[in-house]
């Protein structure tokens, strides 16, 4: 009997009456589930009723593979910055749109905006889902579009920078009847005492820019003679006058008296330049003479570097170099006159020969003592910037017009050029880029010379149309001007205290 009991137990174990939990769903079960029946009520009596349909499916994923691959660090490339606070507020606004509007709002729109700005730091209605770097700009007031402003850009610093106004018309126009229309002459100069000197044929007139008074300083004795060049001393008390009869006259302007007449040249004196008590004069003969105005034997040195007329002559502000330009297309650099030298010929330092036309326009940079600007005539038309220490041409610019004069404007670090054929105008250039800032048009003839006022704010031009025009193009910013005046006053007070 025990044997039959054991066999029955084995038979019961081997019977497949129990449901297979991991087996696929039976065919009749799939039909039952698709026929919208009650599902578990249609099972046969031998099946378990508490087994879910999903648990009977074969697993489709490998264990351990249900985790997502971690994404790259940081936000995606299309949204550079994710502000969690802004995202939360944006989600709140989206859910708020589905809620019914409050018929009787407790607060007005202005009050809600004020509360929002106080609590959140910004207006909640202007919350942005995407936010780029920089302070966002909201839509302008009165903007009717319902779309929110998502992106904005900060204005560039250049657009915020104020640019000064340069008038295209002159501040004053003075008549200059009888002015000689000669490219090689230097007929205009402005003193440190704010007196403008102009040569009209055989006469020299002075115009006080502060008072507006006009004085006839001198007139040549012979009608055929004429004035060729003018140059003020640094203090503005004396005026040197070069004439066509080969002389250099020295005048005391305050007393309107001629102090001396110096003779050494053999041709007209078309250029003059001061260096303390040394007066340098350039002649049509191509020679440059140094005059010591303190002594009777004034002629102390002769410079022979040009083969034609010396029409440009400028001492550097520090007095180290003399630059000369001639009708032979050359720019020459000379050393300072040695103390006690007499009847000695100066030694040429450099000869710059890149110009293809007469060089009358010369200007030393006030804030860079080693920089010289030169301008060529009709055949050249180029402005060239030189480093006199190395003798190299730093930059060059074709102006497409004859250049008769150059001057640096220190208030804005600019270079001003006067032009003859064919533009007859004045051009302001940014230094050192030589980008054009402005053009001053108005003269009907070629501009022969230009000079800068003592305060560096106004440029005076004289042209073949027999007019002198004053252009107030370099007035300093009032804030900078006051700061400069305070600096000068403080320095003068220190000097007075040291003297006491």
From TrEMBL:
Protein name, entry field:
CDC20/Fizzy WD40 domain-containing protein
Span-the-membrane segments of this chain are none
Any one biological process term the GO annotation gives: anaphase-promoting complex-dependent catabolic process
- Name the species this protein comes from: Poecilia mexicana
Q: Which Pfam families match?
A: WD40_CDC20-Fz
Could you tell me where the Low complexity compositional bias lies? 33-44, 54-63
The record's section on PANTHER family has: CELL DIVISION CYCLE 20 CDC20 FIZZY -RELATED (PTHR19918), CELL DIVISION CYCLE PROTEIN 20 HOMOLOG (PTHR19918:SF3)
Example GO molecular function:
anaphase-promoting complex binding
PROSITE patterns, per the entry: WD_REPEATS_2, WD_REPEATS_REGION
From the UniProt record, list the WD repeat ranges. 220-261, 303-334, 377-396, 440-472
User: What's the superkingdom here?
Assistant: Eukaryota
Domain (CDC20/Fizzy WD40) ranges: 174-471
Asked whether the keyword Repeat is assigned, the reply is: yes
Keywords of the record: Repeat, WD repeat
Record family assignment: Belongs to the WD repeat CDC20/Fizzy family.
Decide whether keyword Repeat is in the record: yes
Give positions of region: Disordered: 28-81
Q: Which SUPFAM superfamilies does the entry mention? A: Quinoprotein alcohol dehydrogenase-like (SSF50998)
